[in-house]
């Protein structure tokens, strides 16, 4: 027995991590914990204003970006505790309560951070209660300053949630490494110089030198996840306008994804105005367009997430799009799956 006790005290961090359960939780979902005294209606309203922002580019009123699961020290266990994405809102006043469910030594260190650096935004910890887990501690001196920080940093908090989910979500979907089973990824990297990580649940519909289309179709309901990937030569700045990008996209979907009736094809809807953001993606200029696809000449449609990357070195535009068919159902979690996969795009 003594030998066992001595061994348990000498476990390495790697060994301790190996003993953790896998993280729980769905995409487009996160856990928020604070002490029970601090979790009043005002706090919850402030949190909802951050994480329940409506998705852009969707029909009004739009779906909320995250489902928020609120908890406190009285019920931080099981699914909540092993969730892949947790935000902890910590003040010195609430520290004793949270020390009941989170390592008191860690809580004490975080309180020291608050006292020594009161302007600190927060601290990220990974794999505390489960593997593939992200826990962000938001720090403030008191409840009033916490509510002010939530409102002041709402865009940063939402960006953090999306960034962390892009990592934990991708590992949930495809694991953390590329192996021989990832033949489509390896082939695309070698032959085209770019690729997306695709789960084994997706099947190839088209894969030629010009165009790749993979999809996952549910057998029990009207649900289909689709990803398309292709590139075109970059010839002028006019191609980088929203109209120019969607024109190119429609030319390829008309060629490769016909609709159910003669003359119909997968297009981009003009009924809802697409929402566009320009950003730097892994060192390259990129545009993200969120909007709605439809079938020209038929009655089908759904949300789309399109990323276009300008690869100046090779003089091309790379198009990666996820589009979803899931009529009359809440779509945000299924669409987030496609978004996470699209943002695994690697360009050599």
Chain-wise SSE layout:
Elements: H1 2-9, H2 13-18, E1 29-33, H3 41-51, E2 67-71, H4 78-81, E3 85-90, H5 95-98, H6 104-116, E4 122-126, E5 134-139, H7 143-152, H8 154-174, H9 183-192, E6 194-195, E7 203-207, E8 212-217, E9 224-233, H10 242-256, E10 265-268, E11 275-281, E12 284-296, E13 301-311, E14 316-325, H11 332-342, E15 346-347
Parallel strand pairs: 1-2, 1-3, 3-5
Antiparallel strand pairs: 4-5, 6-15, 7-8, 8-9, 9-14, 10-12, 11-12, 12-13, 13-14
Helix pairs in contact: 8-11
CATH top level assignment of the largest domain: Alpha Beta
Helicity, in percent? 25-40%
Q: State the CATH architecture of the largest domain.
A: 3-Layer(aba) Sandwich
So how many helices? 11
Gap between N and C termini, in Å? 55 Å
| Total discrete domains | 2
Which regions contain 5 or more consecutive residues with pLDDT less than 50?
none
Q: How does the major sheet shape up?
A: 8 strands, antiparallel
Shape verdict: elongated
SSE succession: HHEHEHEHHEEHHHEEEEHEEEEEHE
Rg (C-alpha, Å): 23 Å
Percentage beta strand: 25-35%
Structure, described:
This protein is of the alpha+beta class. The chain has helices spanning 2-9, 13-18, 41-51, 78-81, 95-98, 104-116, 143-152, 154-174, 183-192, 242-256, 332-342, and strands spanning 29-33, 67-71, 85-90, 122-126, 134-139, 194-195, 203-207, 212-217, 224-233, 265-268, 275-281, 284-296, 301-311, 316-325, 346-347. α8 (154-174) crosses α11 (332-342).
